[in-house]
Design goal:
Layout lengths: L1 E4 L6 H20 L7 H23 L1 E11 L2 E7 L15 H17 L6 E7 L6 E2 L2 H5 L10 H11 L5 E8 L17 E5 L8 E8 L3 E3 L4 E10 L9 E8 L2 E9 L3 E8 L5 E9 L12 E9 L3 E6 L5 H11 L4 E8 L4 E3 L12 H7 L2 E5 L11 H8 L3 E5 L14 H6 L2 E3 L5 E5 L1 E3 L28 E4 L2 E3 L4 E6 L3 E7 L5 E5 L1 E2 L2 H5 L12 H15 L5 E4 L5 E3 L4 E8 L11 E7 L6 E4 L1 E2 L6 E6 L5 E9 L10 E6 L2 H4 L6 H10 L3 E4 L3 H12 L6 E9 L5 H20 L4
Parallel strand pairs: 3-4, 3-6, 6-7, 7-39, 9-15, 16-17, 16-19, 19-20, 20-28, 31-38
Antiparallel strand pairs: 1-2, 2-40, 4-5, 8-10, 10-13, 11-12, 11-14, 14-15, 17-18, 21-25, 22-24, 23-26, 24-29, 26-27, 27-28, 30-32, 32-36, 33-34, 33-37, 35-36, 37-38
Length: 738
C-alpha cells in the first residue's frame, strides 16, 4: 500500500502553518472563556477543536491510498454478429436466415471453447458499428431477430477490440454478410487474431434491382425534373418475364412518368416530371420485378426534391447595348436563381429586348413589387419612367432591390434628372455630373469582409485572386458616402466605388465605375479557365444581393440532405449570422425534430464547432421511416428560429438490395485489418476457423489491479468532522459555555 498526496508541494508550508495556527487559536480561545472550565475539560475542548481543524486541512491535502493487487484474468474470445436488416434475409425459401446461421456457428465456437477445459470466456455481442455493442446471451440471441439497419464493418471490428482493452483477448470473430457503408480500414489495430466470417450465398438468386439514382436536390417550380435511373439485373436469362423492363415514377401515389425498355444487365434511362407546387416533393421510383422474384424490396426507392419558387425576377434598364449589359446578362445566366428581362430604347419608346414589344413601366409601388424582385439601372432613369422614379423609390422602401451602375450622363438615353426620392435612396451623393477619367484601382474597406456581396472576392476560404489582379477602371463617378451607408470598395483614400444601404425593408447597391465589363473580362495571371473569376463573381453576387437580399443572415441549416434511410444517423449543422453577415457566437443553437404531419417534438442541443465560428452541429439518432421536419432555433428561450426544412426517412432499401454475401469486401477488409476471411457456407472454411481457435492459448493471464481510494473525499470523513463538532458543542453546553 502506498500513500500519496494530491495537493501541490508548494502549498504544504501553508498547511503546516495553518495546522499550528489552529492549535494556537484553540488554546487561546479556551484560555479566556467565562466561566472558566476545569483543566481536564479545557484540554478536551482544545483537542476536539484542533482535531476538527486538522480533519479539514487533511481533506484539503487530499490523501490518496494506492493498493496493488495481483490476480488472474481469464482469457476471452469475442464473437460479434452483425446486427442489420440484411441479416434477416433467407438465401433459400426453406432454409434458415443469415442471423440464425451466424448464431449457430457461434454455438459451435462456444462448444469448442468449453471443451478446452480451461477458464476461458466466450463473450457474444451484436452490433453494426454505428451504435454501441450489445452483449447477448447465446440462447436468447438465437431466437431473436436483427434490430438495427446498416453496417460499418471496420468500426464494428474496432468496437470489439476496444471493448477488451487491457484484457487477455485471444481472438475476435465477426460474423456478417459483408455489406458495409464504410471501407476505411487501414491498420490492424490490435494484437488478437481477427476472423471475418461471411454468411449468405455468394452467388445470390436472380434479381432485378435499382442500381443507381441521380437527380438534383432542388428545382424551380415549372421546370422539368430529370431523374436518371439505372436498373441492374442478375441471372436474367434464367428467369421468365425478363425480356422487357418497366419503370414508374410516382408522386402522391400517381404515376407521373414511366418508360419501357428491353431488359439487360444494366439499363439507363431518364424519367422527366414537371412540379407545379413548391415545397418538398417526395417521389417513388419502382421497377417491375421478375416473375417470382424473391427480393422485390430493392426494386423501389424514395427520393425527395426541394421544389423552390420561381426564379427571382430582375429588370435591367439598358440605355445602350454596351458590354456592361452583355456581361450582366451572362452573369444572370450562370445563376439558376435569377431570370433577367432587358429593356432597351426603341423607335417610339422602351421595348423588351427579346421580343421588341413595347414596355410599360409599373404605375404603382405595388405593381413594381408584384412584377420584379430587383431592378438594375445603368445611369439615371432617363425616359424609362414617366414619374422619374417616384413609385420605384416607394417600392424599394417596401422590399424591392435596386442596383445602380453609374453611367455617363451625357450619353444616357434621353437623360432626365433623378427624382428626389430616388436620389435619397442611394448610399452616396454624387459631386459632379461628369465622370472622371484616369486609372482607378479598387480596394476593399474594413466593412468588406462583413458583407455577402464580396464573399469569395476579397475574403473567405474560397476567395479567388485579389482585386489587385484586376485592371484599373477608366472612368469614375465622383461621389461621397451618405451617413449610414456601407462602403465596400474605394478608390484612393475616400472615394467610394461600391456602396450599399438598406432603406426601409429594401436594399440599394451602387457601383460608381464605368465599363464594369472590363473587370469581368480581364484574364488574370496563371488563372485556370474553369476557376471563378473574381470580377465575374463580384457581378453575380451584386445581382444576387439585389434580388434576394441577405439570405445568409439569421439561423439556418447547412448542407442538410433531404433523404435518409432508417437506422442512419442524421448529422445536423446550423449557422447563425447577424444582419451584417457576421457569425453570432456565445449563444446556443438547438434543432427541433417533429413529424411533418404534426406530433410531439423533440429538441436537441447543437455543439459549437471551434473551427467554424457561428456554426454548431450534432448527430441526431436514427429515425423510423416517414416525413420529418427540422427547425433550427436559439437555445436561450428567445424564440428566434430559422426556416424549417422537411426531410424524408425511407425504408432500408440498400439493406434489401444485399441479396448475396459480399465476399470481396470481407476479404479486402480482412487484408487491411490483418485478419483472415472464412465463408460459413463452405465446410472447409468452417473447419479451418475451428482448428485455428482450437490452437489458441486459453490459459488465464496474470494481471495487476490498482485500487485507488481517497479517504477524505467520502462521507465518513465528513461524518467524523461533524461528530467532533457535536461532541465539542455538548461539552460546551455542559459547562455553560454556550
Amino acid at each position: 500500500m502506498d500513500l500519496q498526496w494530491l495537493l501541490p508541494g508548494w502549498i504544504w508550508p501553508l498547511l503546516v502553518l495553518a495546522a499550528a495556527g489552529s492549535v494556537w487559536w484553540a488554546r487561546r480561545t479556551y484560555a479566556g472563556t467565562v466561566p472558566t472550565p476545569p483543566p481536564a475539560a479545557r484540554r478536551l475542548l482544545v483537542g476536539l477543536r484542533t482535531l476538527t481543524c486538522l480533519l479539514v486541512l487533511i481533506a484539503v491535502a487530499r490523501p490518496l491510498l494506492i493498493r496493488m493487487q495481483a490476480m488472474q484474468e481469464p482469457a476471452v474470445v469475442a464473437v460479434v454478429v452483425e446486427d442489420s436488416a440484411s441479416m434477416a434475409l433467407r438465401d433459400r425459401t426453406d432454409g434458415p436466415d443469415r442471423w440464425s446461421q451466424a448464431w449457430s456457428l457461434t454455438a459451435r465456437i462456444d462448444s469448442l471453447i468449453a471443451a478446452q477445459g480451461q477458464d476461458a470466456e466466450l463473450a457474444t455481442f451484436q452490433g453494426n458499428g454505428r451504435l454501441s455493442l450489445v452483449a447477448r446471451d447465446l440462447a436468447e440471441a438465437r431466437v431473436d431477430t436483427p434490430r438495427a439497419v446498416g453496417t460499418d464493418l471496420p468500426a464494428l471490428v474496432a468496437q470489439a477490440r476496444q471493448q477488451f482493452l487491457g484484457q487477455p483477448l485471444r481472438a475476435v470473430i465477426v460474423i456478417g454478410d459483408g455489406h458495409s457503408e464504410s471501407l476505411a480500414a487501414t491498420s490492424a489495430g490490435g494484437a488478437a487474431p481477427l476472423h471475418l466470417v461471411g454468411v449468405g450465398d455468394v452467388r445470390g438468386p436472380a434479381d432485378r434491382y435499382l442500381a443507381d439514382l441521380r437527380y438534383p436536390d432542388a428545382v424551380h417550380r415549372g421546370e422539368p425534373l430529370t431523374v436518371e435511373v439505372s436498373v441492374g439485373q442478375r441471372w436474367g436469362a434464367e428467369t421468365s418475364g425478363s425480356d422487357s423492363l418497366r419503370v414508374w415514377l410516382r408522386h402522391a401515389g400517381e404515376v407521373v412518368a414511366a418508360f419501357t425498355a428491353p431488359a439487360g444487365d444494366l439499363v439507363r434511362r431518364e424519367l422527366v416530371w414537371t412540379p407545379e407546387e413548391t415545397g418538398l416533393a417526395v417521389l417513388e421510383v419502382e421497377v417491375a420485378p421478375l416473375d417470382n422474384e424473391r427480393f422485390p424490396g430493392n426494386n423501389r426507392a424514395t427520393l425527395a426534391v426541394d421544389v423552390q419558387k420561381d426564379r427571382a425576377r430582375m429588370l435591367l434598364l439598358a440605355p445602350l447595348p454596351g458590354w456592361d449589359v452583355r456581361f450582366v446578362a451572362q452573369a444572370v445566366r450562370r445563376e439558376s436563381r435569377l431570370q433577367l428581362t432587358v429593356v432597351r430604347p426603341g423607335p417610339t419608346g422602351p421595348v423588351l429586348a427579346d421580343s421588341l414589344t413595347a414596355w410599360e413601366p409599373p404605375a404603382s409601388a405595388e405593381a413594381w413589387l408584384d412584377a420584379w424582385d430587383g431592378v438594375v439601372l445603368v445611369g439615371p432613369p432617363g425616359a424609362w419612367l414617366p414619374d422619374a422614379g417616384f413609385e420605384l423609390a416607394k417600392a424599394v422602401t417596401q422590399g424591392l432591390g435596386l442596383c445602380v451602375l453609374a453611367g455617363d450622363v451625357a450619353s444616357d438615353y434621353r437623360a432626365r434628372p433623378w427624382s428626389v426620392p430616388l436620389l435619397r435612396l442611394l448610399p452616396v451623393e454624387t459631386t459632379g455630373d461628369r465622370m472622371r477619367s484616369g486609372e482607378f484601382f479598387p480596394a476593399p474597406t474594413a466593412a468588406a469582409p462583413r458583407h455577402p456581396v464580396l464573399a469569395g472576392v476579397t475574403h473567405g476560404p474560397d476567395a479567388g485572386s485579389a482585386l489587385a489582379g484586376l485592371p484599373p477602371l477608366r472612368r469614375l463617378q465622383p461621389a461621397r458616402a451618405r451617413a449610414g451607408a456601407e462602403v465596400l470598395l474605394v478608390v484612393g483614400q475616400e472615394q467610394p466605388l461600391l456602396a450599399a444601404t438598406r432603406p426601409g425593408t429594401g436594399r440599394v447597391l451602387w457601383f460608381g465605375g464605368r465599363r464594369l465589363w472590363e473587370q469581368a473580362f480581364w484574364q488574370l495571371p496563371a488563372q485556370d479557365e474553369t476557376g471563378d473569376h473574381p470580377g465575374r463573381r463580384l457581378l453575380r453576387q451584386m445581382l444576387l444581393w439585389t434580388a434576394l437580399g441577405d439570405q445568409e443572415s439569421g439561423i439556418s441549416l447547412l448542407g442538410q440532405r433531404l433523404v435518409y434511410e432508417e437506422g442512419e444517423p442524421l448529422p445536423v449543422a446550423a449557422r447563425w449570422r447577424d444582419m451584417r453577415g457576421e457569425p453570432v457566437t456565445g449563444r446556443d443553437l438547438v434543432v427541433e425534430l417533429s413529424p411533418a404531419g404534426g406530433g410531439a417534438a423533440r429538441t436537441f442541443t447543437l455543439r459549437p464547432d471551434p473551427a467554424r465560428p457561428g456554426i454548431s452541429a450534432a448527430d441526431l439518432p436514427p429515425l423510423p421511416p416517414g416525413r420529418w421536419q427540422l427547425t433550427p432555433g436559439a437555445g436561450d428561450g428567445s424564440g428566434e428560429t430559422g426556416e424549417p426544412r422537411d426531410i424524408v426517412v425511407t425504408r432500408a432499401e440498400r439493406e434489401r438490395a444485399q441479396v448475396q454475401q459480399d465476399r470481396r469486401n470481407l476479404r479486402q477488409t480482412a487484408d487491411r485489418l490483418g485478419g483472415v476471411y472464412h465463408d460459413a457456407g463452405r465446410p472447409d472454411d468452417v473447419d479451418r476457423l475451428l482448428n485455428s481457435l482450437a490452437g489458441l492459448d486459453l490459459e488465464s493471464a496474470a494481471a495487476t489491479r490498482q485500487d485507488r481510494h481517497e479517504p477524505a473525499a467520502g462521507w465518513p470523513w465528513l461524518a467524523a468532522a461533524v461528530a467532533l463538532l457535536a461532541a465539542e458543542w455538548l461539552l460546551r453546553r455542559r459547562h455553560g459555555l454556550l
